[in-house]
């Protein structure tokens, strides 16, 4: 049933109440398939405002699971009939798969397009199911399920920045997550609850660039196993998720330099979009309790039991992120990350970004969890922010 619903969404139109200035407008497409980086055509159906169709329409591509919103400009190409007008746009090069196109001034006029279908063979397209149509328009039932997310995805920011002082150093981070059970697999269909079970991994390294041999000063490894609940439907705009699980962190060293902790954590994430539909405020609080901290029994004085993540910006523009920690001794750390895309389009927050990072306080590395340095400024690039 879920596969049938997904196949029916290709080229689909969601018909709901529209804003006054675009009352009754629908979106349709002559072809539900689009090619990344190429032009595509769509049709706006309804009665023009004040008898005139606008020459340009502001639209956005919305990625599944509450992902980024990417601006798309639609340009009028001519009338398609007495109550419809044709527009042409440029599909973001790196957006592949099924994504939603919506009008910025009429966000409930939505069209699902498939950017991967353009490269499929007829056999592959047929295996995904047929597309219902009424002339050029296919209508999506309002009760259809949200699109499933990919099993392998990004977990935390990924970046490489250099600078700092005492010593001059580079800091980089890689991170990913993996959904353990496929949404249409035998296990998930028998036990639906396992669909929210994830494995996550993050590695953060500090690289000493001043010493002669340029050694790695410290590296922390953070595998985790957690369950994630989607509290809202990301297609509605604002989003909220909740995750809970187990996380281990260690630096892989021996004897006096060994550091490790084991925690149980609870993390929430919420995004609130401002009226422009693209700029958002994000809040991500995380709390934890320690299962084991024998290698560093006083770590709670510097790291505490909670942290707060904050975000402000837009996925296709400037983004400012903050990570704040406070220990029981009244000390902690502040990390600020400011980034700007180096290319126009992005996919799921992925791309090339100019990245400026500021760190101040305790625990720049797990090895030095109880040591504080002067404020550190580094600049570089990120691919996930």
The parts where pLDDT drops under 50 for at least 5 residues are: 1-20, 117-147
- Trace the largest sheet across and list its strands: 11-12-13-14-15-16-17-18-19-20-21-22
Mind telling me which CATH architecture of the largest domain this is? Answer: Beta Barrel
Instruction: Please give the alpha-carbon distance between the first and last residues.
Output: 35 Å
Instruction: Determine the structural class based on helices, strands and strand pairing.
Output: mainly beta
| Global shape | elongated
| Fold-level CATH name of the largest domain | Outer membrane phospholipase (ompla), Chain C
The ordered H/E elements are HEEEEEEEEHEEEEHEEEEEHEEEEE
Strand elements, count: 22
**Under the CATH scheme, which class of the largest domain?**
Mainly Beta
* Approximate strand percentage: over 45%
Mean pLDDT metric:
81
**What is the number of domains?**
2
Total count of helical runs of at least 4 residues: 4
**CATH homologous superfamily identity of the largest domain:** Phospholipase A1
The percentage helix is under 10%
Radius of gyration: 24 Å
Structure description:
- The chain is mainly beta and 385 residues long.
- The chain folds into two domains: 2-139, Immunoglobulin-like, CATH 2.60.40; 152-384, Outer membrane phospholipase (ompla), Chain C.
- Helix content is 6%, strand content 51%.
- It has helices at 2-8, 122-127, 186-190, 300-303; strands at residues 12-14, 26-28, 39-45, 56-62, 69-81, 84-90, 98-103, 106-114, 138-139, 152-153, 158-163, 169-179, 197-208, 216-230, 239-250, 260-273, 279-292, 306-314, 319-326, 332-341, 350-362, 372-384.
- A hairpin with a 5-residue loop joins β11 (158-163) and β12 (169-179).
- It is elongated.
- The model is unreliable at 1-20 and 117-147 (pLDDT under 50).
